[in-house]
Amino acid sequence: MYPRPLLLACVLVALLAAVPLFFVVGYTISVGWSQAWRLLVRPRVGELLVNTTELVAGGMATSAVLGTTAAWLVERTNLPGRRVWHVLLAAPLAVPAFVVSFGWVSLTSAAQGYPGALLIVTLAYYPLVYLPVGAALRGLDPALEESARSLGLGPWRTFARVVLPQLRPALLGGALLVGLHLLAEFGALQMLRFPTFTTAIYDQYRSSFNSAAANMLAGVLVLYCGVLVVAELGLRGRHRYARLGPGSSRPAVPARLGWFGVPALAGFGAVVVLALGIPLASIVRWLVVGTSTAFPAADLATATVTAAGLGLAGALTTVVLALPVAWLTVRHPGRIGTLLERSTYTANALPGIVVALALVTVSLRVLPAVYQTTTLLVAAYSIMFLPRATVALRAAVAQAPPVFDDVARALGLRPARVWWRVTLPLIAPGVGAGAILVFLAVVTELTATLLLSPTGTRTLATEFWSNTNDIDYGAAAPYAGLMVLLSAPATFLLTRSARRGP
Amino acid sequence: MGRVGRALAMLVTAGLVAGLSACGGDDGPTLTLYNAQHRDLIEVLLDAFTEETGIEVEMRSGGDAELANQLVQEGDSSPADVFATENSPAMTLVERAGGFSPLDRATLDQVPDQYVPSSGAWTGFAARSTVFIYNREQVTEDELPASITDLSGPQWQGRVGVAAGGADFQAIVSAVLAVEGEDATADWLAGLKRNAKIYDNNIAALRAVNAGEVPAAVIYHYYWYQDQAESGESSRNVDLHYFKNQDAGAFLSVSGVGVVAASDHQPEAQRLVSFLTSEAGQRALVDSGALEYPVSGQVTANPALPPLADLDAPDIDISTLNGPRVIELMQQADLL
After folding, report:
1. What is the tens place of the pLDDT at every residue in B57-91?
2. Which residues of chain A are within 8 Å of residue B331 when distances are taken between CB atoms?
3. Under a CB-based contact definition with an 8 Å cutoff, are residues A41 and A242 in contact?
4. Are A98 and A32 spatial neighbours (Cβ–Cβ below 8 Å)?
5. What is the ipTM of this complex?
6. Cβ(B179)–Cβ(B331) below 8 Å
7. CB contact under 8 A, B79 and A371
8. In 10 A of CB A110, how many CB atoms?
9. Using CB atoms, which residue from B18, B75, B167 is nearest to A305?
10. Is B7 on the interface with A (CB under 8 A)?
11. Does A209 contact B70 at a Cβ distance shorter than 8 Å?
12. pLDDT, tens digit (0-9, with 9 covering 90-100), for B269-312
C-alpha cells in the first residue's frame, strides 16, 4: 500500500500546514459559545461577508473570462505578435497586487471602493487563469473540435460544447487560485479602503493583537475557503481528460480572425496598459515628482538582498516539503493522499496575519528558541505557499512515467541513484516552476514578515508598506520598482516553462 | 540551470554575508526597543542616545496595541528591553499585566506628575493634542462643532473621517469614555458608525479632507503642522479647530515609554528611558521636526505650535484610560 516513510513525511507536512487551522479552531472553541455568537452575529460581520463575497465572486468571474479569452486568442488564432503578447499578458504576475493598487490609488482616489477593487484585483490576478488555460489549450487534441465542426456545429458552439468542457480542470483550478488569493489579499484592499474579512482581521490585530474577535473572523474565512475548495472539487467532477487512442495529436490550425483581430489587439493593448503601464508609470512618476523621493542606496540594497534571500530560502524549503505530498497523491492515489493534500490548502486562504499570530503563540509556548528567528519565518512561508509548490509538482510527477524508474532499477541502479539520475531530471521543470511561484509570493509577502521576522529585518515589501502608510509615495516608489525588478526574471522563466509545457 | 544556479548561489552568499556583518559590532549590549512611535522621530532620538552613551538600540516597529499585546503574550520570554508608544492606553495595558519594571526615581523626577501614572511603572515622554480638521471650502466656521460628542449628530452624516482601526483614534475614544461615561460613549460611537468615513490612518484622513473627499476629520495636531512645515501639499485647504473647554475632544494624549520587566539589560534600558525624558532627549524631540509636545518643564515646544496651556485639555488621570474596553465598545458599535 503506502510506503511508510513517505506516508510519515506527508503526515508531518500536513500537520505543519494545519498548525494555523488547529489554532484558529482551538481558539474558537476556547472562546465559548456565547462570546463567539456575540462576535460573529453582528452587522459588521454581515458587511464583511457581503464585501468579501462580492469581491471573490466578481474577481473569479472577471479573471476567468479575461484569462480564457486571452489564452484562446494567443493560442488558437493568427493574431500578430502572439509570442510577445504571451509574455506581456503573463507579466502582471511580476507586479504584486498591492503595487498595482498603489499605482492606481496614488494617482486617483476614484480607484477606491468596489469597482476599483474589482478592476485592480482582476488586473493583478487574471494571469493565474491565463497561464493554465493557455497550457491546456496547447495540449488539446484538435481532432475532437474538427469532428464537431464536420458534424455541423458552428465555431461558437464548438467552443462552448467541445473546447470549454475540456478546459474545465485548468479553468476551475485557476479560478480557485484567484478566489483563495482574494480571500487572503490584504495590502491592495487596505489601500483601496475596501474592507473584507482579511482587512478587518488586520484591524482587530492592530487593536488587540491576537484576540478572540480576530480569530472568529479567521474561522469564518476558513469555512469560506472550505466552501471554495469543495465546490471546485465538485465542479471538476470525475471525468478523464487525457487523450486516448493511437498516434499523437497535432497542433491546432489557428483560427483566422480577419477584422475581429482589431478589437482583439485593442483589448490586449488595454489590458497591458491597465495592468502594467499604469502601475509602472505611476512608480516612475513618483520617483520623478515625489517630494519624499530618496534613494538610500544602502537601505535599498539591504532590503533587496533580504527579500531575495528569504525568497530563496522559502522556495527551497517549500518545494522540499511539497515533494512527498505531490508524490503520494500521484503515485499512490487514494483517500488518504487526497485528504493529506487538501489539508495543505487551508492555510493558503488564511491571511498571513492569521498564520503569523498562530505561529507566535505556538512558538512562544512550545519552542521559544525559534521565536523571532528566520527559521520560524521560513516555516510560515512554507505553510502559506505550500499549495503553489504542490500544484506545480503534482503536474510534473504525473508526467514522469513510473516505468522509467522501473527500468532504471532493473538495470541495477540503487533507489537513491534512480531518484537522482532519473526521477529528479524528469520532474525538474515542475520543481523549478513551484520554486518560482513560491519565490514570487515570498518576495511580496507583508504581514507575516512584519510579525515574525527577527528584529531589524527589513524587506522590500515591509519598507514599501511603511512608506505608503505614511503616504510618502515618492519614498515608497523605489521599493515598489525593486520588487517588480526582482520578480520579473522569475516570471519570465515561468512563462517560458509554461510555454514548453505539455 | 547552470547560470541561474550560480546566480542563486551568489545571492545566497551575499545574503549570508549581509546577515553576518549585521551581527558584528562591539561588546556592549544592544537594546531592543519595541517601538510604536513614528520611526523617523525615534531614529533621531536613538541616534542622540547612542552618541551620548555608546549603547546601540535595535527597533521593532508596530502599532501601540499590537506591540503591547505582543509584549503581554511574550511575557517572561520577551526579547524586548524598552517599549515606547504613541498613546498611553497601550502602556496601561502592559502595566496591568505586570510587564514593566519600576522606573528609577531620578527619571520620574524629570517629568511633571500629570504625565506619569501614580504607579511610576512608565512615564510620558511626548504629548499630542486632538484636533478637528476641516476643508475650508466645505465647512463654514459657524458649523464647527462645540464638542467632539456633536459629531454623532445628523448634520455630520457622511461628513467626518476617522481612522477607527488606529491606536490614535482609539485613545481619543478612551478619553471620551473617561469624560462622558460608558452609555454616552456607546451612543456616540453608534452615531459615528452612521456618520463617519473610515480611513486607514491620520495622514490618509488629512489628505482626504484636503482633497475634499470628506469635509472634516478628527486627528492629532502634528500631522497638520508637519505637512505645513514640509510643503503643505496635503493640508493646503485644511484649517484646524481645537475643541478646548476641557471637552473630551481637547484630549491631550501622552506617548509613554517604560522598561520591560523581562529585559536582561535593566540598567541600560533604564538609561534609555532616562535619556528620553532628560533635557537633552526632550530637546532632541523638539529639534526633530516631529512637532509633538515635549513633556519636560525645562524645554519649550516648537514656537509654531499653540502653547499647551491655551488648549485647555480635560483633566484626565492617564492610568484610567481603558484600551480594551474601548475595543469592546467599538466592536459593539461595528466600527471594528
Report:
1. 999 988 888 899 899 989 999 999 999 999 999 99
2. 39, 42, 44, 213
3. no
4. no
5. 0.77
6. no
7. yes
8. 11
9. B18
10. no
11. yes
12. 999 999 999 999 999 999 998 899 999 989 999 999 999 989 99
